[in-house]
Design a protein that fits this description.
heterodimer; A: alpha/beta; six-stranded mixed beta sheet; three-stranded antiparallel beta sheet; 7 helices; 9 strands; B: mainly alpha; 10 helices; 0% strand
Chain lengths: 256, 284
């Protein structure tokens, strides 16, 4: 299943947020979207997931999602969005209940996803007992339980400290090498983008336009050992963004 | 520098640096501490006992005139009279009946209307101005109307408590719904949860802390209104008992009645505390 963003533009009232965005997300591919703060990256992701509607242009789904996919477009949020009153397994079962998966069938799915995210020992824990990294792993487990065709990740590591971020980044890469999921990954962290992205889309300051699309052909699993080469790509991305980021920093913001 | 340091380029590992502090070295002065609530379990019963003991002592020695304030022992014997004659249960059951019926229906309706205001923009636009206009009216002022509408019997008393508890519950509930993390709702939508599931599994549990603290307030209001309502045309009930005692200047009975109300309020508060512990154990 592919996703095509077709000439998408958006404005809130008088403020133009996004302008003429075109790109394609192929199956099994991770597309990273980077840009200065307030450039509309998260808004773009909400359009792709159908949580908001753009003023112009469309987001298209090409091809059918896998038959066993309960929720083809599945989010992972920056603030984890776990229900604090539900345990780890309760948070996963939340998204299964509406699809009529209950009892032993749900247990099997929960067992499976918690094992894949190394959370099996924490089934009965409440979110407040978990560290930030564990919370995000629960959110990833919850996303995996519905067999997504595309994961929409909105700065999933930005709320974590840098060591946890590094650990979770390794986990994500390992997960991808095993399962080859496709993902649209929004971040402001260039290091994450060059580690995870097959394609990196650089957005400009508001109104967000595509400045450049950078492809990285190096296989994901090799990247951790070839950081020196990636450093160069990262510096290129930073050169593209630096002035924009500085200008964005100086801007008064009146749209959320 | 006399101290050895680790060279990080060509690391030589040191187990532990040996440091000899200079002769004029002093400990850093401690400036923290304080400003923290500590728990003293025994203090509150001791304060109660000492206060009542001083009061009793003052009455016994004649320092406090028995006309101004009866001794605690007198109030206690008035209470014992109530127990002996069996009137305690008559008063208490009448009051508890009014209190529970009025509070349960008032709260249930309040939660229902509060949810409607919180969930539907149309009902918010329609109902919120009415709630805001009626909330500040003292319900006691409407008691004569309630007597005309619901009769001099139980109806008007229950109605007073019902209306008194309804409005604060409405406001607590819709405030709670408004404060549910929008991102949790968005999460529910992004996983394709149905509208009913989002309300049942995300919005209502999310609003529960606010609803329960609304219950705490409405229960106190209910007790205040209970006495007010019982002061008109009630034969039995704690409020009627207090009114009668006041009319006869039987201040010992008055104190006994007031103490009963206080105990009732404490019990209700304790029950709600237990409910909070049970339903909100997921909070830090």
């Amino acid at each position: 299943m592919d996703i095509v963003v077709d000439n998408l533009s958006h404005h809130y009232g008088q403020t133009e947020v996004l302008d003429g965005i075109n790109f394609e997300l192929k199956g099994g591919e991770i597309v990273c979207i980077i840009g200065p703060s307030g450039c509309g990256k998260s808004t773009l992701l909400r359009f792709i997931g159908g949580l908001e509607q753009p003023s112009a242009g469309r987001v298209l789904i090409a091809g059918a999602p896998p038959a066993d996919s309960l929720n083809p477009l599945t989010y992972i949020f920056q603030d984890f969005a776990l229900l604090p009153w539900r345990t780890v397994e309760g948070n996963v079962s939340l998204v299964l209940e509406d699809h009529g998966i209950k009892g032993a069938k749900a247990d099997a799915v929960i067992d499976d996803v918690l094992r894949r995210t190394k959370l099996s020992d924490f089934r009965k824990a409440l979110p407040r007992q978990l560290s930030g990294g564990m919370k995000q792993r629960v959110a990833i487990a919850r996303a995996l339980s519905v067999n997504p065709a595309v994961m929409l990740m909105d700065e999933p590591l930005s709320a974590l400290d840098s060591q946890t971020r590094e650990l979770l980044l390794d986990d994500l890469i390992e997960l991808w090498t095993r399962e080859r999921f496709s993902a649209c990954y929004v971040t402001h962290n260039l290091a994450e983008a060059v580690r995870l992205g097959h394609k990196i889309i650089v957005l400009s300051r508001r109104p967000g336009r595509i400045r450049q699309i950078v492809r990285i052909d190096m296989p994901l699993e090799e990247r951790v050992d070839r950081l020196a080469e990636l450093e160069e790509t990262q510096r290129h991305l930073w050169n593209l963004m630096r002035d924009e980021a500085r200008a964005a920093d100086m801007e008064l913001s009146d749209v959320a | 520098m006399s101290l050895e340091t680790v060279n990080t380029v060509h690391a030589t590992s040191l187990q532990q640096e040996t440091i000899v502090p200079p002769a004029d070295a002093r400990p850093v002065p401690f400036r923290g501490g304080g400003f923290r609530v500590r728990k003293f379990r025994l203090i509150s019963p001791i304060v109660f006992i000492v206060l009542i003991g001083l009061w009793e002592l003052g009455s016994q020695t004649g320092f406090i005139s028995s006309i101004a304030l009866p001794a605690p022992s007198e109030a206690f014997s008035a209470f014992q009279d109530l127990v002996r004659t069996g009137m305690l249960w008559t008063h208490l059951s009448a009051s508890l009946y009014r209190l529970s019926v009025g509070w349960i229906f008032g709260s249930a309706l309040g939660v229902a209307v509060g949810l409607m205001i919180g969930l539907f923009s149309l009902s918010r636009a329609g109902l919120l101005p009415i709630v805001s206009a009626l909330f500040p009216i003292p319900k006691i002022a409407l008691l004569p109307l309630f007597i005309v509408w619901f009769g001099i019997g139980e109806g008007s008393k229950v109605a007073t408590i019902l209306f008194g508890t309804f409005f604060p519950t409405v406001i607590a509930t819709y405030g709670g719904v408004d404060n549910v993390d929008r991102n949790l709702i968005r999460m529910g939508q992004s996983f394709g949860l149905s509208w009913l599931s989002i309300v049942r599994k995300i919005i209502i549990p999310g609003a529960l802390p606010a609803i329960l603290s609304g219950f705490r307030i409405s229960a106190s209001i209910a007790i205040v209104l209970l006495v007010a309502a019982e002061m008109i045309g009630a034969q039995h009930g704690i409020g009627a008992y207090i009114l009668m005692a006041g009319a006869l200047f039987a201040t010992d009975q008055l104190i006994a009645g007031v103490a009963m109300l206080s105990v009732l309020g404490l019990t209700v508060g304790w029950l709600i505390g237990k409910a909070e512990q049970y339903f909100l154990d997921w909070r830090t």
